[in-house]
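Exercise: predict the fold of this chain.
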Amino acid sequence: MVGENVQADVYTREDAIKLAKELELDLVEIVPTADPPVCRIVDYQKFLYDKKKKEKEMKAKQGKQVVKEVRFGPNTDEHDFNFKVKHAMNFLEDGNKVKAYVHFKGRSIAYKEKGEIILLKFAQALEEYGKVELLPKLEGNRMFIHLAPIPRKKSK
């Protein structure tokens, strides 16, 4: 048993309950799987409040991962390509993942190589901002590539 104003030691259940009543606090089982089980003498309402507060902090620190999409056609020109690369750079710098894809319409699916070249060129242009998670992969009439941001050291 552990707690404030209590010497950490092994107590019988009856002694622990008696001690908790004397201090007008609650006996809470912290680690039931230990041998012997670990208990703490605390104010139970405060214990629950602190537990919820810690969980809320952990959830806030966790952060949500957002996936931004960038769409190309198999015949995307250089200017449009550069424009989309700049947007993807901003997305990666903000800590978002980027999913780029080439959408093939109708018979343009015959030019799969063009789509793969565009996506590999895209990944190469962004290699210092993000790393490739998934190489170009054709699913249906779309060819995908996934990029994840490279963690940057924050300057002081």
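Check your answer against the key: The mean pLDDT is 86.
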